[in-house]
Amino acid sequence: MLTLFAVAQWNQARASVAEMKELGEEDWTLTHAFYANAGGFLLHTPDCPPFPINAKSIHYLCSKRWIECPRVSRHDIWDRSKADKFAKLVALTQAAWLVTQVIARAVQNLAITPLELFAVAFVVPTLATAFFWANKPQDVNQATTIKISSSVSEIIQTAGEAAKRPWSDTPLDFIEKPSWNNWARRPVFKYFGGLRTRPIDRIPNDYVAPPSGRQSIIVWVVSVIHAAVHVAGWSFSFPTRAEVLIWRCSSIVLLLFMITGGLIPVLSTKPWFNFKFTLLWVWERSIQGPNPTWVQRYLLDVVSELAYVMYIIARILILAEICITFRSLPASAYDTVNWTAFLPHIGG
To answer: Can you tell me where the transmembrane regions are (predicted)?
Structure first.
């Protein structure tokens, strides 16, 4: 899930940098774009409560001369971040060390516990997420204020017919939402998690258009590799035959879900895809055109919901397996890797 949002946010940040450079703003970086899309800039106008604006809105307002490009340095943004690149590097080093130890244990025929394999499986999406979020500041609580004397009403009046449509989150929805291609939050989540006020006073973490086809394929591949790592425990030594079967069946369910279920988000980026579909139970893609069929309205959504339920059950069973196998681990699970065995030996 995090990898999906990371890829989508990275894509939007790259697009923002390209747009701002077209305006001659060479100092606008990926860090600025991530900062803006996370709600780092608050727009203050005379006729509306302050509300956050993302990178697309900043580009639009700059191109129309409503505002000057915000002059906040990359260093200042990182100074507000709760995690610098050194902290991220330490975390990645720990993940790499875990993978190295597991590989070394396999080479030396030492037992690998289900917990170790489970942790290695999450290293794959963690590395992918870290790559796409390398330039993203984290947990910045103090936003940069942009004050203008012009009113939101003036901005809307001069923007044309598109701006006169009803907005749901901020008055600048007409700038930020068209690229979402019929995706929207499910109604139950529209006011969830501190989003009760309008205009919204913060940008939620998942406030991003779903990724394009190429980025969806990246997420799909990462997800399949993540699930396939669990299957590597097929021949692990479990205390009972039933636990062996539970692990094997659960890992296969995860893999099949990622292979087949992961294709649907990829296909949903295609122009011909016209089905009601819920992504991670949070976002919905609506059907376009009159008189949708039963298949368009229900079939794909019902199948995907059932697949999500099976996926959750498989996850719970794997977590239970990890806990209960500690009662009877193979003796070699307590042995450490003999690192000197990997050093070349020079004969005398």
So the answer is: 115-134, 217-238, 245-267, 306-326
d(CA 44, CA 60): 16
Alpha carbons 182 and 285: distance in angstroms, whole number: 6
Q: At how many degrees (to 10) do helices 30-37 and 2-22 cross?
A: 120
By the 8 A CB rule, do 59 and 98 touch?
no
- Structure tokens belonging to residue 252: 């296969």
pLDDT at 91 over 90: no
Distance CA 145, CA 239 (A): 60
Tell me the pTM. 0.80
H-type alpha helices, 232-327: 241-256, 263-267, 294, 300-324
pLDDT tens digits for range 107-153:
999 999 999 999 999 888 888 888 888 888 876 667 888 999 888 88
CB 291 within 8 A of CB 191: no
